[in-house]
Every structure is written in C-alpha cells, then in structure tokens.
Amino acid sequence: MAMHFDITDFRLFINIAETSSLTRGAERSFLSVPATSNRIKNLEDNLGMRLLERSPQGVTLTNAGRTYLQHARIILSQLEMLTGDLQQYAEGLKGQLRLLANTTAITEYLPPVVGEYLKTHPDVHIDMRERLSDDIVRCIRDGSADLGIVSGSVVTDGLQSVPLVSSRLMVIAPEGHPILEGGEVHFKEALQYAFVSLLEGSAIHVFLSRAAAALHIPLTIRVQVASSDAIFRMVEAGAGIAIVPQAGFERLKGSQKIGSCKLLDPWAVRTFQLCAQDFDGLSAFARDFADSLIDCYRAA
C-alpha cells in the first residue's frame, strides 16, 4: 500500500498532539474544526490506521499516532535546517528558531543576545517559550525544540550542552523586614511569610511550589503579578517577600526600599546550560544564535 504524506498534515498533527485537542490544534493551524476533522480522517484512511483516540476530554495518541508524531517532528526539523542552510543563497527565505528557556533565562540572559541577533538575521523568527528545565530537556530530545536553556541539576544525558553562566536565587523583602536580619536564610524559614509571585504556571512559580511541596509546607501566595518589575514594586509596598535571581535584583533594585538576603538551599545556585540534540546538526541560523549566546557569556 502506497502511503502519501503532506507537510500540512504534519504541522496540523503536531499542533493537535501538543494541545490534546482538535479544536485548539485547528486554531493553532489556522484551520476550521470541520476542515481539521476532515484532514485527520483522510490521513487515517490513507494510512489505514487510527492515529488519534477521541473522547469528551480531548484526544490522545495511539501507538501509531506517537510514531507518526515522532517522525513528523523530525521531518519538519530537517526542513527548517534546509531552509536555514539555503537562506544564505536565496533572498526572501524565512527561518524559525524554536527556543525554550526558564523564567530567569528569558528575563535576564536572553534579551541582549536576541536583540543583537535579530539585527543581523532579520528573516529569522524566534519562537521562544517558557518551560521548566525538565520539560525543556524532554522537548529537545523529541525534536520539538531546537535549543533549550536549562538550569540546576536537571539530567541532560544524550544531549550536547555548553555551560553559560551561574546565578543565585535570593530573597527580597521591604527594608526592616525580620527575614533580612541574618543576611541569609533557608527556604524553609522563608515559607512562614507570604510571597509575591509571578503568575501561576510560570516556570519559577512551579519550581518554588514544588520545592515547598518537598518540604511539606504550603507556599502562601498573597499577590500574583505578570512581571519582575511588578514583583519589586509589590514587595516594596509590603505585600510580601519574593525569591528572585540575583541578576534581576541588581537590574531592578534602583532606588526602591528593598533589602535582600542569601538563600542557602543548594538549589539556589544554578548553572545555566545551552542544550541541543547536536549543535553541528542545527540549521545555519540556529548555529549562529547558539554561537552568539555562548560568546556573550563566555566573555562575561
């Protein structure tokens, strides 16, 4: 039996798999739900097998669906590499760099590199998303991202990685707050106070929630905000304490009446690493970005 494959089907199927929903997959693919259902039906009929199991809760992949997804990602990744490598020869070709990083990397370490890179690569679009380090490693392994920046003790076996920079998490509080008296504190002690945090679902919020759960102590969130700047303003106003990267503290403390103390837990000092399946196997524009990032922090 001859099997016919279509790039649009690959992209559509990936979007459905990542959202576990035909409707959301259709939205991501800019297709109507009836058109999406029809394409999936035709795909399954052509292959002679079911790729999705449908239920009121959404869709799940069959074993065949998981195999199709794996190869769809590989094929689209290869096409991105081809596009990138041909970009230097043909005007107007576009490239997409799929980059994953945690909260600190996105807010503190990536902006200066991204800004300079896009000036010299105007035809490249960076799809940058925030994820936890464990999730980033999994996405790099399965080919759904080109590059990832991870931190902490996450296991990167099977990937290539390059150390970038080390960072410490610290506690900030309004001047005169009792937590600042000793100049250093364990997370367990800090948990007796209410926190100001980024929104639920942000990588740092999930990370701290897991750390608190490991101690069997609730993390009390008094205020949730959408940006690092808002955290500092809320802390200064007395809404609670917060845990922030030292780089963010140095950048944002300004004239605000905020103090800081060292967080003593071993996980508070984190080394950031740039990861890829194979740096030499990246598209030309992705290799350029990796080189720019490594050069920036190697010189720092």
What descriptive keywords fit this protein?
two-stranded antiparallel sheet, 12 strands, D-Maltodextrin-Binding Protein, domain 2, Arc Repressor Mutant, subunit A, alpha/beta, 3 domains, WH-like_DNA-bd_sf, DNA-binding transcription factor activity
Write the layout of secondary structure elements.
Elements: H1 7-19, H2 22-29, H3 33-47, E1 52-55, E2 58-61, H4 63-86, E3 95-101, H5 103-109, H6 111-120, E4 124-130, H7 133-142, E5 147-151, E6 160-174, E7 184-185, H8 187-190, E8 195-198, H9 203-214, E9 221-225, H10 228-236, E10 242-245, H11 246-252, E11 258-263, E12 269-276, H12 284-298
Parallel strand pairs: 3-4, 3-5, 7-11, 8-9
Antiparallel strand pairs: 1-2, 5-12, 6-10, 6-11, 6-12
Helix pairs in contact: 1-2, 1-4, 2-3
Radius of gyration, in Å, reads 22 Å
Task: Tell me which oligomeric state these chains represent.
Answer: single chain
Number of strands: 12
Q: In terms of structural class, how would the helical and strand content be classed?
A: alpha/beta
The low-confidence runs, each spanning 5 or more residues with pLDDT under 50, are none
Question: How much helix, percentage-wise, in residues?
Answer: 40-55%
CATH homologous superfamily of the largest domain?
Answer: Periplasmic binding protein-like II
Summed up, the domain count is: 3
Q: What is the number of helical segments per DSSP (H or I, 4+ residues)?
A: 12
Order of helices and strands: HHHEEHEHHEHEEEHEHEHEHEEH
Q: Please summarize the sheet with the most strands.
A: 8 strands, mixed
CATH second-level architecture of the largest domain: 3-Layer(aba) Sandwich
CATH topology category name of the largest domain: D-Maltodextrin-Binding Protein, domain 2
